[in-house]
Amino acid sequence: MRRVSRITAAGAAASIAVFTWGAAAGAGVASAAGSAGAPGAQLLQRVGTVNVRALAGTAGPAGLGGRTLPESSRTAGAASSVPVPNPPNRPIALMHPGTTGFSGINAVTSGQRNGFDVEPPDQGLCAFHGVVMEQVNLAVRIFTDRGTPLTHAVSLNDFFDQPPTFNPTTKRFGPFLSDPRCYYDAQVGRWFSTALSIDLNAKTGAFGQRSSLLIAVSATSDPTGNYAIFAVDTTDNGNAGTARLAHCPCFGDQPRIGADANGFYVSTDIYPIHGLFNSHGGALYAVSKTGLAAAADNGPVPALVSIHVGATTIDGYPANALQPAQTPPGGAYAPNTEYFLNTPDFNGFATSGGKGAQAVVLWALTGTGSLNAAHPDVRLTHALLPSEPYAPPVAAQQQFGPHPLGTSQDQPLPRLSVNDDRMQQVIYTAGLLASSLNTGVGAGGTATRSAAAWFVVRPSAGSTDVTGSVVRQGYVAVAEGSVAYPAIGLNAAGTGAMVFTLTGERFFPSAAYIPFTVSGPEDVVHVSALGVAPEDGFTCYPAGVCRWGDYSAAVAEDGAIVMATEYIPGPRDHFANWGTFVARYST
Predict the structure, then answer these.
(1) What is the rounded average pLDDT for all residues in the chain?
(2) What's the domain count of the chain?
(3) 471-509: pLDDT as tens digits
(4) Alpha helices in 355-471 (DSSP H)
(5) Residue 361 located in a structural domain
């Protein structure tokens, strides 16, 4: 189900309608492998350059107290058509000695850089050789992995060389950006970042008629230096080489990124900008990784391959929400192949409720070495793999405490949305894929809280098909609480951690993790940062369910896993009190 929030900037003539998504909905499980829609040509354009050090010295918008009003609420998860798991609960302890961490970007910082508040933050994170880049809605900052800031925070619009979402001097609106992610590629020594962009009416702030996928690529291995900005038109109304789909103009929701030895990959979900319509399924963009790196240093722009993944239907619904795999530094890439995972619960991303599933979907893009050619020749195939059951997650409880924004509206303590059962971050290492997702859990067939379901998949790709099996699987659950938005990070040896938000009757929303290998998790959940209050942001009211997530992040870096997730740290402005915590767990 789609939710709409409105963000009104003080002094503006109108407001910015901001689409946010999250619902679980059900599809059955097909049994045969198949191929997706044929690859097509689509234009990748260079649209700007930016220097992060120069940006960090500029001031954000002044005098823009955020004003935010939710227009509609997310419904509770639908009844599950698969058995609701009831796994054993894991004990909870403090973080390991030697594990360090620091508070990252929070609502106050993002609000100051942009002039308004946004929920949820959507956790982007990448790291290499002691440097960490954090990206959230709607701010970017670079730290050492011990928390020393290397730059000031800058707005996401500035980072992508875009006009501000609202300019208080001219009273005009620029594009709306969201869903940032970033990735450092040790093979080419470049930092890659993505975000979605939707044009706004410059005078009214209403959504316009065009959308883009923005890609920033560093010119060197220095994340604080120069970046080239590229754009792909994602409007899908027949213009600029895009497909002509019903109810478009559309936008590419929640870009997900990955890479193999040859290519850089972005997967999005196609939704109409205007109106409440079902998704057209997924889109996949593939481009030469070395070509992008060269283009960031004033070389020619490489060819872009676009594939309408939604042209493949499973149980009557268009395939959606593919998670590309990332390989950690020093790891062996799959030969000439990029793998992806997702779930077959595709209706969970449409406008009706989900049912859960007992399978995961393995995808393979083969022929990726041809991405370096002028005319790439790649093939996308998929296979459904039986798995443990997972059910629609349910909104999570949080410990009672002061919630002044809610109290001012005479509202009770809200719960946290755990969205749906989309597959989260995928890691390819030691010939295996590891990933996780949100699931409802509870006794007697009824989901009463949310947990993480995890999967380790052994894939095998041929020239015309892909096969594989789920070789290990399980759950991470806690008593009287929920685990939300897991992300697994592993090193080249297959050792790492799963990070997530921990919340419940005894916990304010907190940052937590569990050590994880390709054999599965250890027994104990560790809290890296205790929350100090309930979530009390503008999306919580009057529905009583707050936006949270929509994803966490974890990456391997110099003998450790650097990971980040949302929690409540204390600082707040009138409309929001979220924050992020970045932890470094030594492996």
Answers:
(1) 89
(2) 1
(3) 999 999 999 999 999 999 999 999 999 999 999 999 999
(4) 404-408
(5) no
How many other CB atoms sit within 10 Å of the CB of residue 484?
Answer: 28
Q: Which helix (H) or strand (E) holds 585?
A: strand 579-586
**How many angstroms separate the CA atoms of 473 and 387, rounded?**
8
Is residue 7 scored above 50 in pLDDT?
Answer: no
Whether 355 is covered by a domain: the verdict is: no
In this predicted structure, the answer to whether residue 50 has a pLDDT above a threshold of 70 is yes
Q: Both tokens of residue 261? A: 């030895």
The residues pairing with 304 across neighbouring beta strands, listed in sequence order, are: 287
Quick one: CA torsion of 564, 566, 567, 571, rounded to 10 degrees? 100
DSSP 80: P
Report the percentage of the chain scoring pLDDT > 70. 88
Q: How far is CA 234 from the centre of its chain?
A: 18
For residue 289, what is the enclosing H or E element?
Answer: helix 289-296
Distance CA 324, CA 340 (A): 4
> Domain range for residue 224?
2-347+377-586
Mean pLDDT over residues 253-282, rounded? 94
Residue 367 placed within a domain: no
Check residue 266 and give left, alpha or beta (phi > 0: left; psi -120 to 50: alpha).
Answer: beta
Whether the CB-CB separation of 569 and 516 falls below 8 Å is answered with no
pLDDT band at 80 (very low <50, low <70, confident <90, very high): confident
pLDDT at position 42: 64
- How is the beta sheet containing 190-200 ordered, strand by strand? 44-51, 226-233, 207-218, 190-200, 176-185
Element of type H or E holding 55:
helix 52-55
Output DSSP code: residue 306. Answer: E
In a domain, 368, yes or no: no
